[in-house]
Design a protein that fits this description.
Low-confidence stretches: none
Structural class: mainly beta
CATH topology: SH3 type barrels
Helix content: under 10%
Distance between the termini: 46 Å
Number of domains: 1
Radius of gyration: 18 Å
CATH architecture: Roll
Number of helices: 1
Strand content: 35-45%
Amino acid sequence: MPTKAELKLKGKKVKLKVRTGDKVVVIAGKDKGQIGFIAAVSPEDMKAIVLQENPENPEQPQPLNAATKHFKAKFQGQKSARIRIPVPIHVSNLMVIDPNTDEPTRIGRRKEGDKIVRYAKKSGKTLDDKPNISAKD
């Protein structure tokens, strides 16, 4: 049986402070202090997958909050492998990095003209809403 809070959330569209492409810092958990970018967001679960720049292979970023999955060889000649897969992080454990000051900041919403935009509360500057999927900023 769902709780009263779950029923309330079910009827509302959840608005998150983070979006795909935002540069974030992890503020809690085993990867505390690590900086990465958001690859995917799940508003229903309030979770995000965060990836980090990989210096050895820039085309394949490393996952933050990764779990190791073991694959057993099924055929002769095939090798067993251990693969790191990304595990979603709750958005309350992430803070967006202000593009002007490069420091973690809270995000607010305000109306500019007829649009609602996100802004960094530390600097007061608006954040661009164009997704930036590259690890380099």
